Amino acid sequence: MNIKKVSFLIIVILLIDQISKVYVKTHFVLGEDVAVFNWFKIYFIENSGMAWGTKLSDILPFMTDRTAKVCLTVFRIFAIFGIGYWLVNTIKKKESKTLVLALVFIFAGALGNILDSVFYGVLFDGSSSQVASFLPAEGYDSLLHGKVVDMLYLPIWKGYLPEWLPGIGGEYFTFFEPVFNIADVAISIGFCILIFFNKKAFPKREED
Fold first, then answer.
1. Rounded mean pLDDT, 186-193
2. Which is catalytic among the residues 65, 141, 184, 208?
């Protein structure tokens, strides 16, 4: 897989991710949902922290939420440069196409969420009681303080768990509870490729 094909695939993933986010941001009020199927909804929420809604300030309590947000965003920017370097180096060395494909999905997904974190605070106004507008006179926050837009919700099963389950028996449970976006899907696909096709991604080289 050459640089042109890789670049094209990254751009396609980014476009799908960003178009879906901009559409939801400019057509939904925060917390609004639309049922596509019984088990699939478009449900607009915003994530200001890490995966699963965790905040860096929850882990490092000496940090304020805003300081933690900037640190997390800067860390993500450095991480994306690292992934990008790994991807380009892998292509130049003509290593496994499986590894290249996995890195493409991870890179595109990570970049998609970074764009939200870096720019969305100044590109959009608030969504809590209104449908946000694009390029307003004043955004809902400053640069590096944007929130990641999530909208894919798959409540495949809801119900009470059997009483015999230790610790959680009898509790109301939803599968699948997290709300995510296209960028998250891309990252997950990339990691799944690395896990399930590990031998193809990292083939053992024959020693002389």
1. 96
2. 184
* pLDDT mean across residues, the chain: 90
Structural domain contains residue 207: no
pTM for the predicted model, two decimal places = 0.88
For residue 206, tell me if it sits in a domain. no
- Is residue 25 pLDDT above 80, yes or no? yes
How many separate domains does the chain show?
1
Q: Which of 17, 116, 125, 150 is catalytic?
A: 150
208 assigned to some structural domain: no
How does residue 208 score in pLDDT terms, banded at 50, 70 and 90?
very low
**Among the ranges given (38-42, 121-125, 172-176), the one the predictor scored with the smallest mean pLDDT:** 172-176
- The DSSP string of the chain is --HHHHHHHHHHHHHHHHHHHHHHHHH--TT-EEEEETTEEEEEEEE-SSGGG--HHHHSTTS-HHHHHHHHHHHHHHHHHHHHHHHHHHHHTT--HHHHHHHHHHHHHHHHHHHHHHHHHHHB---SSS---BS-SS-SS-TT---EEEEEE---EEEEPPTTSTTTTT-EEEET--EE-HHHHHHHHHHHHHHHTHHHHSPPPPP-
pLDDT by residue (tens digit) across 87-122? 999 999 999 999 999 999 999 999 999 999 999 999
Residue 35 lies in a domain: yes
Indicate if 17 belongs to the active site: no
- Residue 41: give the domain boundaries: 3-201
Catalytic annotation on 33? no
